[in-house]
Inverse folding.
């Protein structure tokens, strides 16, 4: 079973062979062929989708005692199992991790109450990684 992990993604350049890129593209195409991100991933009918969630304070940007607010940066990580996203790396040239955009796969509904503009940050800096 695949473990999906939502992580902050910081872009960087990395040399990847063309064959690995082709295998990754084929894998992603095959995994998403009949996939719906609107369907809750379950290991068995009626079972919940358990999500492990954690975060780490990265930086305190501002504390406003008058407005009683704080602006912070955090590193956030969620892990869950989606049995629909599973593969044998040997069948895809050894590809053992695949990156998805947020709108391509199921994403747990976790939100901070009274958070400011989290959606824009999520779109810009977050991706979903899947491991077999």
């Amino acid at each position: 079973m695949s473990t999906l992990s939502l992580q902050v993604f910081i872009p960087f350049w990395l040399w990847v062979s063309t064959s690995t890129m082709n295998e990754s593209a084929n894998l992603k195409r095959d995994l998403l062929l009949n996939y719906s991100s609107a369907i809750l991933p379950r290991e068995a009918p009626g079972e919940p989708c358990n999500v492990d969630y954690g975060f780490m304070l990265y930086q305190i940007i501002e504390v406003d005692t008058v407005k009683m607010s704080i602006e912070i940066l955090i590193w956030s990580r969620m892990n869950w199992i989606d049995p629909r996203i599973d593969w044998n790396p040997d069948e895809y040239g050894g590809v053992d991790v695949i990156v998805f955009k947020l709108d391509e796969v199921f994403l747990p509904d976790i939100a901070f109450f009274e958070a400011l503009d989290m959606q824009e940050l999520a779109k810009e800096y977050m991706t979903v990684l899947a491991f077999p």
Q: What stands out?
A: DSSP finds two helices and five strands in the chain. The mean pLDDT is 77. The helical segments are 18-32, 118-125. The longest helix spans residues 18-32.
